[in-house]
Amino acid sequence: LLVTSDLQRARQTAAPLAALWTRTPTLAPGFREQGFGLLEGLDVPTIQARHPELWRQWLTHHADFALPGGESLRQFHTRVMDAVVELVAAHAGRRVVVVTHGGVLDMLWRSVRGLSLDGLRECDIPNTGVNRLRWAHGRLHITSWADASHLADLPAQPPTNIARA
User: Fold this and answer.
1) Stated pTM of the model
2) In the chain, where are the structural domains located?
3) Using alpha carbons only, how large is the chain's radius of gyration in Å?
4) What is the pLDDT of residues 90-109, one digit of tens each?
5) Strand runs (DSSP E) across 57-150, as ranges?
6) Taking every pair of C-alpha atoms in the chain, what is the biggest distance, in angstroms?
7) Nearest CA to 152 among 133, 125, 128, 131?
8) Please, which pLDDT band fits residue 26 given cuts at 50, 70 and 90?
9) What are the Cα distances from residue 40, in Å, to 35, 65, 101?
10) Pseudo-torsion of CA 27, 30, 33, 39, nearest 10°?
11) Which residues, other chains included, contact 126 with Cβ-Cβ below 8 Å and sequence gap of 6+?
12) Which helix (H) or strand (E) holds 76?
Protein backbone atom coordinates (compact mmCIF):
# COMPACT_ATOMS: atom_id res chain seq x y z
CA LEU A 1 0.00 0.00 0.00
CA LEU A 2 1.32 3.45 -0.94
CA VAL A 3 -0.03 6.39 1.05
CA THR A 4 0.91 10.02 0.57
CA SER A 5 0.05 13.39 1.98
CA ASP A 6 -2.35 15.13 -0.35
CA LEU A 7 -0.01 18.12 -0.75
CA GLN A 8 1.51 18.46 -4.21
CA ARG A 9 5.16 18.06 -3.21
CA ALA A 10 4.47 14.74 -1.48
CA ARG A 11 2.37 13.49 -4.40
CA GLN A 12 5.21 14.41 -6.77
CA THR A 13 7.73 12.57 -4.59
CA ALA A 14 5.48 9.50 -4.51
CA ALA A 15 4.85 9.50 -8.29
CA PRO A 16 7.96 7.52 -9.39
CA LEU A 17 7.28 4.85 -6.77
CA ALA A 18 3.61 4.69 -7.78
CA ALA A 19 4.64 4.25 -11.42
CA LEU A 20 7.17 1.55 -10.53
CA TRP A 21 4.62 -0.34 -8.46
CA THR A 22 1.75 0.48 -10.88
CA ARG A 23 -0.35 1.68 -7.96
CA THR A 24 -2.38 4.77 -7.35
CA PRO A 25 -1.36 6.32 -4.03
CA THR A 26 -3.97 6.72 -1.35
CA LEU A 27 -4.16 10.40 -0.38
CA ALA A 28 -4.13 11.01 3.37
CA PRO A 29 -4.61 14.61 4.57
CA GLY A 30 -3.64 13.53 8.10
CA PHE A 31 -0.05 13.25 6.86
CA ARG A 32 0.09 16.85 5.59
CA GLU A 33 2.77 19.22 6.85
CA GLN A 34 1.88 21.45 9.78
CA GLY A 35 -0.63 24.15 8.85
CA PHE A 36 1.12 27.53 8.91
CA GLY A 37 -2.03 29.59 8.35
CA LEU A 38 -1.29 33.22 7.50
CA LEU A 39 2.33 32.36 6.65
CA GLU A 40 1.51 29.42 4.36
CA GLY A 41 3.57 29.51 1.18
CA LEU A 42 5.74 32.48 2.19
CA ASP A 43 9.53 32.23 2.23
CA VAL A 44 11.56 33.21 5.29
CA PRO A 45 12.68 36.68 4.10
CA THR A 46 9.07 37.59 3.27
CA ILE A 47 7.84 36.37 6.65
CA GLN A 48 10.58 38.29 8.46
CA ALA A 49 9.71 41.47 6.55
CA ARG A 50 5.91 41.25 6.76
CA HIS A 51 5.37 39.50 10.08
CA PRO A 52 8.45 39.95 12.31
CA GLU A 53 6.58 39.44 15.59
CA LEU A 54 4.91 36.24 14.39
CA TRP A 55 8.29 35.01 13.16
CA ARG A 56 9.85 35.72 16.57
CA GLN A 57 7.04 33.91 18.37
CA TRP A 58 7.21 30.91 16.04
CA LEU A 59 10.95 30.56 16.67
CA THR A 60 10.29 30.03 20.39
CA HIS A 61 9.05 26.52 19.49
CA HIS A 62 6.26 26.43 22.08
CA ALA A 63 3.92 23.49 21.59
CA ASP A 64 0.77 25.55 22.08
CA PHE A 65 1.65 28.52 19.86
CA ALA A 66 -0.33 28.59 16.62
CA LEU A 67 0.09 31.06 13.80
CA PRO A 68 -3.17 32.80 12.85
CA GLY A 69 -5.21 30.27 10.87
CA GLY A 70 -2.61 27.55 11.50
CA GLU A 71 -1.97 24.64 13.84
CA SER A 72 0.03 24.55 17.05
CA LEU A 73 2.60 21.77 17.37
CA ARG A 74 0.25 20.08 19.84
CA GLN A 75 -2.66 20.17 17.36
CA PHE A 76 -0.35 19.01 14.58
CA HIS A 77 0.99 16.14 16.70
CA THR A 78 -2.55 15.02 17.53
CA ARG A 79 -3.54 15.05 13.85
CA VAL A 80 -0.46 13.06 12.81
CA MET A 81 -0.83 10.45 15.54
CA ASP A 82 -4.55 10.10 14.79
CA ALA A 83 -3.61 9.46 11.13
CA VAL A 84 -1.11 6.80 12.21
CA VAL A 85 -3.65 5.03 14.43
CA GLU A 86 -6.24 5.16 11.63
CA LEU A 87 -3.74 3.75 9.12
CA VAL A 88 -2.71 0.93 11.47
CA ALA A 89 -6.33 0.03 12.21
CA ALA A 90 -7.22 -0.09 8.51
CA HIS A 91 -4.13 -2.01 7.39
CA ALA A 92 -2.99 -4.09 10.36
CA GLY A 93 -0.22 -6.51 9.49
CA ARG A 94 0.44 -4.96 6.06
CA ARG A 95 3.53 -3.15 4.88
CA VAL A 96 2.62 0.47 4.16
CA VAL A 97 4.80 3.12 2.53
CA VAL A 98 3.92 6.68 3.55
CA VAL A 99 5.31 9.68 1.66
CA THR A 100 5.06 12.69 3.92
CA HIS A 101 6.84 15.79 5.22
CA GLY A 102 9.62 16.70 7.62
CA GLY A 103 7.29 18.07 10.26
CA VAL A 104 5.26 14.87 10.28
CA LEU A 105 8.43 12.83 10.67
CA ASP A 106 9.52 15.09 13.54
CA MET A 107 6.19 14.40 15.29
CA LEU A 108 6.71 10.64 14.85
CA TRP A 109 10.29 10.87 16.17
CA ARG A 110 9.20 12.86 19.22
CA SER A 111 6.33 10.48 19.92
CA VAL A 112 8.46 7.33 19.70
CA ARG A 113 11.25 8.87 21.79
CA GLY A 114 8.88 10.36 24.36
CA LEU A 115 10.20 13.87 23.69
CA SER A 116 8.50 17.16 24.44
CA LEU A 117 6.77 19.01 21.62
CA ASP A 118 8.50 22.18 22.82
CA GLY A 119 11.92 22.96 21.43
CA LEU A 120 14.00 22.33 18.36
CA ARG A 121 13.92 19.22 16.22
CA GLU A 122 16.35 16.59 17.52
CA CYS A 123 16.60 14.27 14.52
CA ASP A 124 17.94 14.29 10.98
CA ILE A 125 15.32 14.38 8.25
CA PRO A 126 16.98 14.31 4.84
CA ASN A 127 14.77 14.96 1.82
CA THR A 128 13.58 11.62 0.43
CA GLY A 129 15.23 9.82 3.33
CA VAL A 130 13.78 6.46 4.30
CA ASN A 131 12.52 5.98 7.83
CA ARG A 132 11.27 2.58 8.91
CA LEU A 133 8.80 2.30 11.74
CA ARG A 134 6.68 -0.57 12.92
CA TRP A 135 3.60 -0.77 15.07
CA ALA A 136 3.84 -3.31 17.87
CA HIS A 137 2.24 -3.63 21.29
CA GLY A 138 0.03 -0.59 20.67
CA ARG A 139 2.75 1.87 19.74
CA LEU A 140 5.29 2.90 17.12
CA HIS A 141 8.90 1.72 17.16
CA ILE A 142 11.73 3.06 14.98
CA THR A 143 13.67 0.33 13.19
CA SER A 144 15.83 2.70 11.09
CA TRP A 145 15.95 6.45 10.55
CA ALA A 146 17.21 8.91 7.93
CA ASP A 147 18.56 6.29 5.53
CA ALA A 148 19.70 8.15 2.42
CA SER A 149 21.85 5.39 0.94
CA HIS A 150 19.61 5.28 -2.15
CA LEU A 151 20.88 8.79 -2.97
CA ALA A 152 24.60 7.97 -2.73
CA ASP A 153 25.25 8.09 -6.48
CA LEU A 154 23.55 11.46 -7.01
CA PRO A 155 25.50 14.73 -7.15
CA ALA A 156 25.63 16.73 -3.93
CA GLN A 157 22.71 19.09 -3.47
CA PRO A 158 23.07 22.67 -2.25
CA PRO A 159 21.93 23.25 1.33
CA THR A 160 18.46 24.65 1.82
CA ASN A 161 17.83 27.86 3.71
CA ILE A 162 15.52 26.52 6.39
CA ALA A 163 15.52 28.60 9.53
CA ARG A 164 13.73 26.08 11.73
CA ALA A 165 15.67 22.98 12.70
Assistant:
1) 0.91
2) 2-151
3) 16
4) 999 999 999 999 999 999 99
5) 97-99, 130-136, 139-147
6) 49
7) 128
8) very high
9) 7, 16, 15
10) 110
11) 146, 148, 151
12) helix 73-90
